[in-house]
Amino acid sequence: MSRRRRLPVSLALIAPLGLFLLIFFAAPLYTMMSAAVSDPIASRALPGVGSALASWDGSAAPGPDAQAVFARDIRSIEDDQLFGDLVRRLNSAKPGFRTLMSKTRTALREDLKANDLVAIDERWSDPAYWQAVKTATASTFTDRNLLAAVDLERSPAGDIQAMPAGISANRTTLARTFVVSLLVTIACLLIGFPYAMIAASVEGWKRQLLLGAVLLPLWTSLLVRTAAWFILLQDNGLINSALMALGLSSGPVPLIFNRTGVVIAMTHVLLPFMVLPIFSVLIGIPKNLMPAAASLGAAPIRAFWKVLLPLSMRGVVSGSLLVFMSALGYYITPALIGGAQDQMISSVIAYYATGAANWAMAGALGIVLLAATIILYTLYLRLASDQQVQP
Hints:
By secondary structure, the protein is an all-alpha fold. The protein folds into two domains: about 40-140, no CATH class; about 170-390, MetI-like (MetI-like fold). About 70% of the residues lie in helices and about 0% in strands. It has 20 helices and two strands. The protein has a two-stranded antiparallel ribbon. Strand 1 (about 150-155) and strand 2 form a beta hairpin. Helix 17 (about 315-330) runs antiparallel to helix 20. The protein is elongated and about 95 Å long.
């Protein structure tokens, strides 16, 4: 078959995979990213206000003409859902709009000739409310959600500044997410590296048994494994009962609803992703290198540090990045095992998506996690390429 004939066949073979990636990866990713930066609600609900406030200097409430345009647009909103979305958008920028907009809409509908908004409510004389309206109607795209994802906002002058204390804790939650992910990665490395060394040093059924013990948790549902740890880590669970029976503890050790329990449960879940990359590298290292180092006078620890660890570093980096990137998006385990101060950013994303129905903020936080993952993956590719070019 000629090359020209093979090309359609090859494209037909990869078409299902391409369609799958387009529907289940590219399309949701595009939807998430567009929702995070799009802001069409205000401009759609108030089509004339944006141009009416374009020349407003912001020093005082706008003049009668701009207020009349605003009143006309409010009267023309027949869709209650659109009005509710507009109220939520404005209230997120300036608290107080929820009651102000409801009162204004009722008054404008009762008196079709009323255009003096200050007479309806004194808050319309505050330029801060009008600044929120102008910002919301100025463009259909915004960086407000992306800035809010890291506790930043734009001042009335347009400068980026930190949000007032107590308004948002996204930055704290993001930092907690990275800390917990790092702790889980370190725990997986401390347990997984020796385990991979043992598995690589044996042969036959012993190796199969050790690898089977690692792979077995992957065949069990994540929810089932987390629920099992929920039972084991309780005050009257198996672990605390064993500690008290052995005399190692005089009372129950707090292992649940805290960070300790989260790290333990996540380490168990993610341990295979550390063991397998390291094991795949260790089995390719000649077994005579360590005896050769010992014959040259190197102590076991020095031989490990100078010979085995550098050669296995590619597997260590791969496993560490794989565990860390997987831990960043964990939701079920911290939600069931952790306390209020141990929830990760995935819980905040779930709240915005399902609790507050704020898909824009959920998308913005998702973009932050995606950016962190891409940076880490790029770092991994760079390290892997550097190791390959070494002689």
